[in-house]
Amino acid sequence: FDVIVLPDQAGEQILHGYLEGTMPEEFAGGVGLEGALALERYVESGGWVVAIDHAVDFAIDMFGLPVRNLVRGRRSDEFFVKEAIAFFVNSQVLDVIPAAEEGDKKIERDIVAYATFAKEDFLASGWVLGGKRYLAGKTAALRIPFGQGQVVLLAFEPHFRAQSHNTFKLLFNPLHAATLNAGVWRDVLVKKREHERAASHAAP
């Protein structure tokens, strides 16, 4: 496979699935520990994993990524969204842990945040509680190197029926990128570093 997509599902469900006897046999159970370790080996050897919405928590834990889900475990009186924000329907919010705070989650730092939530005017309709603290300007999509492969975290469902067609590319582009040769990504990283060095030299 070039890429494996983990759809919107809680980590516990991905690991264990439905109990035997509650579903037809072929639909019972999850990936289990053996499957999770196989997934880790797959990415280390060059595969791509795309985790969507609640599945980002599974990916963060499974791969030990230097990323926090800022709304994981938040009470509804701390953060709550009601039909309010474009791209956000009971979704997640990501934040990259600074290298100095990583602890044992050390990983190559070529992390690319390729989508963020708006810093201002993010309330399209409805209402939100805690939006400025937990949502405004925060990361919605990340690409993180892991071994020879890549892990892509999408904090929301870009293909959800209510989404704009403009968000489909946030899913389709990683699916396409996973089919490209690894040399392409080395070239991308080299150009990225050159751009960052040029920008730092140009800064007053």
Question: What would you say about this model in short?
Answer:
The chain is an alpha/beta fold.
What does this structure look like?
By secondary structure, the chain is of the alpha/beta class. It is 30% helix and 20% strand. It contains six helices and nine strands. The protein has helices at residues 11-16, 32-44, 55-63, 131-134, 169-177, 182-202; strands at 3-6, 48-52, 67-69, 80-82, 94-96, 112-116, 127-129, 139-146, 149-154. The strands form three sheets. Strands 1-2-9-8-6 form a five-stranded mixed beta sheet, sandwiched between helices. Strands 3-5 form a two-stranded antiparallel sheet. Strand 8 and strand 9 (149-154) form a beta hairpin. The longest helix is centred in the last third of the chain and has 21 residues, at 182-202. The termini are far apart. The model has no long low-confidence stretch (mean pLDDT 79).
Largest β sheet strand count, sense and barrel closure: 5 strands, mixed
General shape: globular
Secondary-structure element order, N to C: EHHEHEEEEEHEEHH
How many strand segments? 9
Note the beta-strand portion: 15-25%
From the alpha-carbon coordinates, what is the Rg to the nearest angstrom?
18 Å
- Considering DSSP H and I runs of 4 or more, what fraction of the residues is helical? 25-40%
List keywords for this structure.
204 residues, five-stranded mixed β-sheet, two-stranded antiparallel sheet
